[in-house]
UniProtKB/TrEMBL annotation:
The keyword Hydrolase applies. It comes from Tetragenococcus muriaticus PMC-11-5. It is an enzyme of class 3 (hydrolase). Keywords: Hydrolase. This is 3'-to-5' oligoribonuclease A. Its EC number is 3.-.-.-. Residues 12-90 form the DDH domain. Residues 165-246 form the DHHA1 domain. Coiled coil: none annotated. The keyword rRNA-binding does not apply. One of its GO terms (molecular function) is nucleic acid binding.
Length: 254
């Protein structure tokens, strides 16, 4: 990641993307700027910034930014590399256009970006590449996933286990979609222990809304893709029980 010194932040216009609330902004120096713009596609339940552009129905912030370019094609110059990166952002956030947030508008924007001539097939392959260690972790998920008759499921990664597999916390994001490939699994959580001892809960769903659950555990997100934090395995169990209830209630509500 590019290093940015304090002087660059001082008095600057700071733009934060894909971050639902201020505490999740990765660099606290954003507060040193004169103005702050929030661009996001999560529900705007914790507003921040001097200007907010939030489209909760958008598939990704990349879609929002590409749409901004489409609105002002004469004023804004789109390069081949910028188009490639925006396309990658859309593909990543939509799970290769598998998630419900992938709308006809999303696909049209992706097509417009492809028109810039980058090798989108090679980019798709690159996005899907995983290390051998992550491949081994995928096997662990399938082998150890606990599945409830309600359709709820979970698996837990301790820091010791991740160290043994040679996988970082960030790399675990690559295995989060895997439980959804199993039939009868409706919603799931992957609990990843952090060095401080607490657990990050990566939550996904194929139907039941889970963002309300995430909010009750210091998190939030979309209806079908959210994140939360729990103090320990006891609290993780309580979160999972709420996922179970959401799965049980889902058929009755649909």
């Amino acid at each position: 990641m590019q290093e940015v010194d304090d002087a660059t932040y001082q008095g600057a216009l700071v733009i934060v993307t894909d971050t639902a609330n201020a505490p999740r902004i990765s660099d606290e120096r954003f507060a040193m700027g004169d103005k702050l713009i929030k661009i996001d596609h999560h529900p705007n339940e914790e507003p921040y910034g001097d200007l907010m552009w939030v489209q909760a129905a958008a598939s990704s912030c990349s879609e929002i930014i590409a749409e901004f370019w489409q609105l002002f094609p004469e004023e804004l110059h789109m390069t081949k590399e910028a188009a490639r990166l925006l396309y990658a952002g859309i593909v990543g956030d939509t799970g290769r256009f598998l998630y419900p947030a992938s709308s006809p508008h999303t696909l049209r924007i992706a097509a417009d970006l492809i028109d810039f001539g980058f090798d989108y097939a090679a980019l798709n392959r690159q996005i899907e590449q995983i290390s051998r260690n992550v491949a081994r972790l995928s096997g662990y998920v399938y082998e150890n996933l606990q599945i409830d008759p309600s359709g709820a499921a979970y698996v837990t990664f301790s820091t010791e286990m991740l160290e043994n597999y040679g996988v970082s916390d960030a790399q675990t994001s690559g295995v989060v979609p895997l439980p959804g490939t199993i039939e009868n699994v409706l919603a799931w959580a992957i609990f990843v222990q952090q060095p401080e001892g607490y657990y990050r809960a990566r939550m996904r769903s194929k139907g039941p809304a889970i963002n309300g659950i995430a909010k009750r555990y210091h998190g939030g997100g979309h209806d079908l893709a959210s994140g939360a934090n729990v103090r320990d395995l006891e609290e993780a169990q309580k979160l999972y029980e709420e996922i179970q209830k959401a799965c049980i209630d889902f058929p009755a509500n649909n």
